[in-house]
Amino acid sequence: MAATVTTTAVTTGKTWDGGNEPMGASYGKMMMWFFIVSDALTFSGFLAAYGFSRFKFIEIWPIADEVFTHFPFMHGKEAPMYYVALMTFILIFSSVTMVLAVDAGHQLKKTKVAIYMALTIVGGLIFVGSQAWEWKNFIKGEFGAIETKGGAILQFVDAETGKRVALADFAVHLPTEEIQKRKSNGIWFQDAPTRTSYSVAEVAEGFKTHPNVLVRTEIIKDKKKTVLNRAESEKAMESAALVVEGANLTHNEYGHRLFADFFFFITGFHGFHVFSGVIINIIIFLNVLVGTYEKRRSYEMVEKVGLYWHFVDLVWVFVFTFFYLV
Amino acid sequence: MGAHTHESNTKRIWTVFGLLSVITIVEVALGIVKPDFLFMSDLFRLSLLNWIFIILTIVKAYYIMWAFMHLEGEKASLRWSIVAPLVFLIIYLVVILLIEGNYVFDVFHNSQYKWIF
Q1: A63 Cβ neighbours under 8 A, 6+ residues apart
Q2: Touching check for B27 and chain A: CB below 8 Å?
Q3: B95 — contact with chain A (CB < 8 Å)?
């Protein structure tokens, strides 16, 4: 570390004469590490809270591979986890290019550092974009569901095939004069819920006329969601209170609302870290281009942002496991 | 750590990348297939499959921290000041919260209370 700029004073051998580097790391690098430690504890807190809520509702927690089944340009095909695996791969690869940039920095190869930094930035942008796409699918929803008065989610399956049925497949359109209330069409407007594609009455009517549609509850038995028989399904439908399409912070067609809350919160917080990482990488990349570190004869700054970038990858590895796999 | 200690590091980087990719592919394959003998048998309220996922994740974390974040080249004192608090605090927090979550589940499950917590 003797070559780094942070070492200003000449050490005379005494502890307090300056130029000392505790634990063999420069000030900036050590502080980056301790920031990472504290940030890692923040993420651990979130994931542990997720675990707490999941254990609290272990019998009714949504099954992740039923939730994340989309892949770009493969409409209607079930592709559980392929996309998120691809995202993981992209982030790991951008970590590789980052560490290659650090490595090139140690050898003071400016062009190489710049190329690898640019690749890292591109990888980060692809990842953030993928996450936005994942959020879009999650918010939009796929099949739609009914929420009961008690807050439970009822989903629908085909009696013969056992496959999920979308609300649009069996709900009917009843004549209605109801419209989406907005500020623009009201004299006195305060608030109105967003209208779903079907009302509860329309779903209930469609359910009556389609005897092959059964209700699937949230309850997990033998690691599978319980499907009710027709009589039980009709009974369950009596307590229908809301039509839920997609997910937001208060309603979630995939199951327990806490699942959606944690999904938005944890992947959002991680996505924000990736976004900040991309911005910081861009700043350092520009500094590399104008030759700031070339003049210093030290690319330690690249190493420091590298640490942050790897940390973001590290967090994703855990988010991936606990949200999508376990 | 001048340039002299960093001559053939790219080889190590690519090896670790290969390792991480293989682990991820294994995880995803297991997650899609979900072999019954792993998925249906439990150990401490967690299926064997989930234990495998968690262990593989920790292996991945180890390689990211040791190879990419270059902890293997740092002094032992720095390594310990980072790893020890994390390991201790995370295990502590997770154990307490999961036991508590399990207890709340039991209360919901075995009593009439539905929204007490």
Answers
A1: A220, A225
A2: yes
A3: no
